[in-house]
Write a structure and sequence with these properties.
The protein is of the alpha/beta class. The protein is about 40% helix and about 15% strand.
């Protein structure tokens, strides 16, 4: 694709976009998370390395998608073809994932992890010229005007893979239809017909199609983390079965009052229940201590290491144990779903044979498909009361773990294939000479 001159109106809009970035840089320099890699983000450390392909992965989640794509890419390429691939990210978590992937995939591809430069149009022109890729891949919703404009000007094909866009985002982009049309990528592969329709509306000149979500390729229900020594935190049954354990995971600040009522309801409805309460952010642990104390509910911090009493709460103040806790639970709720926050990942409990319950908000995971609720593999309730009723029922009579796990694996298997489809699209630009 030959480079092109952008319309005057688009060039003016990019000038103002660049000015906005420059005005924001002093404030960004004071941001603790953005200071890391500052020299690379501003290109003061030197140009990005030359590569055959440039993939932009926003954070940890997208970095894992890039990993899955690159793991399979050699299978779509001619034998002995080992391309250099630059993968950039905006966060330290994403960079950590990419560095790990680079080490583990070293015999398959040459992966070059790097910080994503700030999207100032002029600097993106320099960055793209230095990399000189055959194509640029943007994952999910990574629509950066500076980079996309540079691709158009330098004749580099841009592809948006595993693409998704909410209706709210589409309406926002629709305020500048001519601008986005001029920056159109060559190809968009969206994760659903609805997402594809939104991208087609935004980029009428792009080739838009539908692909399976790569995230299904990453699901591995055989590799669930084990509970290790967490079992000692729960009471054992002496003359009767052990009291049920219910996990309330990734609870967000905005929904705390609702979740507190769920905790009260569980302690009232389910005899002897132990509730594992996992705030999404550790700084909320102290606030939860105050709320539970004020409500007169018995609790202990997980860090105390003591065995919980039946009819009490374990307030989790330790990182990295939510997945293992699912392995001990009869029922679980995933937060970010009672407030309008889009929800948290409710698939992980299925790897332990546990049916997850969520509230009404789940737009962040709509790619899973509403069929999962119709199948009974997950429960989506309209409000707090519905969540409480479902949790109480599951805690009292949970379905067999093995049956849930088998059905979850079947559901995911039927939706895999996204990584292979994406690799075929990328391989068109990486034919080795």
């Amino acid at each position: 694709m030959a480079g092109e001159k952008l319309p005057l109106g688009v060039r003016l809009a990019l000038v103002f976009y660049g000015l906005a970035w420059r005005m924001a840089l002093p404030a960004l320099a004071r941001n603790g998370r953005l200071r890391e890699g500052w020299e690379q983000r501003t290109l003061k450390a030197g140009p990005l390395p030359k590569a055959d392909l440039w993939i932009q992965a926003a954070s940890g989640g997208e970095a894992y998608l890039a990993w899955e794509l690159l793991r399979r890419l050699p299978d779509a390429l001619p034998q002995n073809c080992r391309p250099r691939i630059l993968v950039t990210t905006f966060t330290a978590q994403g960079l950590g994932v990419l560095k790990q992937a680079a080490e583990l995939l070293a015999d398959r591809v040459e992966l070059l992890p790097a910080w994503f430069p700030f999207d100032l149009p002029g600097r993106m022109e320099e960055a793209l010229a230095a990399v000189s890729p055959r194509a640029v891949v943007l994952l999910e919703t990574e629509l950066w005007p500076g980079l996309m404009a540079a691709c158009r000007r330098q004749g580099v094909h841009a592809l948006v893979l595993n693409a998704r866009m909410t209706e709210k985002s589409r309406k926002g982009y629709a305020h500048m239809p001519g601008f986005w049309k001029a920056l159109s990528p060559r190809r968009v592969m969206a994760v659903s017909p609805d997402d594809a329709a939104r991208f087609a509306d935004l980029f009428p000149d792009a080739a838009v199609s539908v692909m399976p979500n790569i995230k299904f390729d990453r699901l591995d229900f055989s590799a669930a983390p084990k509970a290790k020594d967490l079992g000692r935190l729960l009471p054992e049954g002496e003359t009767a079965p052990a009291p049920p354990f219910v996990v309330l995971g990734s609870v967000r600040k905005q929904e705390e009052p609702e979740v507190l009522e769920i905790v009260k309801g569980l302690l009232e409805r389910v005899p002897g229940v132990v509730v594992g309460l996992f705030p999404r952010h550790m700084e909320r642990v102290r606030a939860w201590e105050q709320m539970l104390s004020k409500a007169g509910l018995p609790f202990a911090r997980r860090s105390a290491g003591t065995t919980a009493q039946p009819g009490s709460v374990i307030l989790w103040d330790a990182f990295g144990e939510l997945g293992a806790a699912f392995g001990l639970a009869r029922a679980c709720f995933l937060g970010g779903s009672l407030a309008d926050l889009g929800g948290q990942n409710f698939l992980e409990p299925l790897a332990h044979g546990v049916v997850p319950v969520i509230g009404p908000s789940w737009s962040n995971f709509a790619w899973v498909g509403a069929e999962i609720f119709g199948s009974g593999l997950a429960r989506r309730e309209a409000d707090r009361q519905g969540v409480l009723t479902s949790l109480a029922a599951l805690a009292t009579a949970p379905p067999p773990r093995a049956a849930v796990l088998e059905e979850a694996e079947r559901y995911a298997k039927s939706r895999r294939g996204g990584a292979a489809a994406a690799c075929q699209a990328v391989a068109e630009y990486l034919i080795c000479g």
